[in-house]
Amino acid sequence: MTLDHLPLGPRARIVAIDWSLLADDEAQRLRALGIDLGAQVALAHRGVFGGGDPLALTIGRMTVALRRSHARAMQVEEI
How far apart are CA 36 and CA 70, in angstroms? Predict the structure, then answer.
């Protein structure tokens, strides 16, 4: 499943990322935040306006706002 379909709460591991769907600077920023293959993440919140943007993604002890379009580029599996 893609990250944008992950339910709120459960932890998941990123198993694939289609970097071609992201601009180079966006991909670099996500990698700098630790969002890469094997990272363990959880969705903490979905925005209520504009189709659920942004998503609040917990990675480690950090919470990051992520666009839904970026989350669609990431395949995850629940752990």
Answer: 12
